[in-house]
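Consider the tokenized backbone below.
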């Protein structure tokens, strides 16, 4: 690996990565000659901590406290990155302090281990501080190469499911497209998620090459759309709000969420909030995943 004032460059097998000290995450990731992640026009595409979702119609019970805590306006303040050689691999540690608009926030760190075969193990650590209410999710959000339209995964499907809405979804190998993951609700909101995912692959239909994300330990929750949380959340008004309609425009990149925790759905739009076993309090959390090339 090589270091400079702006970042760290790592090469392992057919994998090349550039880490940006300013953003605190990877700014470019290439595997087997295929671009996986690449910042565009100053917009960070590399993985970052994610704790919010596009609140759905059953989320109003936690939406108001979440907004009041200022956690929809996260800011990322990187500490010093560190790169070392360890057991024949290169490990890059990226610690970041993530703050909201008020007192609550998170200490977050990602450890990237680049192996000689070109695969990358990413270990994530998160610990909340200050006043943090119930949060909708904990995981990583990143923007992938938009050419990876084809998606295949081993988990629950074929339609969207949540941790408390999955009994009718079998665990199997499912194939689809990123475009088809979006569910066209009357008011755009969180949608298209899949639970109990062991691995997911995104590939370019032109050459079959792409990237695989594999669970290390517990299966994960994944979501892949052409829209960000902000796109969905701001598209239409909510009850009692001034009327608005902002047409959704699909993005070039793939907005990919890989979560270790997700708040249940419940049925607060017409009944109770999620049952206790489908809720979780903010706490120290760890999750890991393996990134590997597809179709070398």
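A designed sequence for it:
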């Amino acid at each position: 690996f090589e270091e400079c004032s702006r970042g760290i460059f790592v090469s392992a097998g057919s994998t090349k990565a550039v880490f940006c000290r300013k953003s605190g995450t990877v700014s470019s990731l290439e595997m087997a000659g295929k671009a996986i992640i690449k910042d565009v026009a100053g917009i960070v595409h590399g993985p970052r901590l994610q704790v919010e979702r596009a609140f759905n119609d059953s989320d109003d019970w936690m939406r108001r406290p979440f907004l009041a805590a200022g956690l929809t306006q996260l800011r990322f303040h990187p500490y010093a990155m560190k790169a070392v050689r360890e057991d024949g691999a290169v490990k890059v540690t990226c610690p970041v302090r993530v703050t909201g608009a008020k007192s609550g926030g998170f200490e977050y760190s990602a450890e990237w281990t680049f192996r000689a075969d070109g695969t990358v193990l990413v270990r994530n650590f998160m610990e909340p501080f200050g006043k943090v209410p119930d949060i909708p999710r904990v995981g990583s959000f990143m923007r992938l190469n938009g050419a990876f339209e084809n998606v295949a995964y081993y988990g629950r499907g074929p339609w969207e499911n949540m941790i408390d809405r999955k009994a009718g979804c079998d665990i199997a190998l499912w194939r689809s497209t990123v475009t088809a993951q979006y569910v066209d609700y009357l008011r755009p909101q969180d949608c298209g998620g899949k639970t109990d995912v062991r691995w997911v692959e995104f590939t370019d239909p032109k050459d079959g090459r792409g990237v695989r994300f594999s669970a290390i330990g517990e299966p994960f929750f994944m979501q892949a759309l052409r829209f960000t949380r902000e796109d969905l959340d701001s598209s239409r008004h909510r009850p009692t709000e001034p009327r608005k309609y902002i047409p959704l425009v699909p993005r070039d990149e793939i907005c990919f969420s890989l979560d270790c925790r997700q708040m249940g759905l419940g049925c607060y739009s017409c009944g109770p909030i999620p049952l206790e076993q489908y809720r979780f309090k903010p706490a120290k959390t760890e999750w890991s995943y393996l990134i590997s090339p597809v179709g070398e």
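The radius of gyration is 19 Å.
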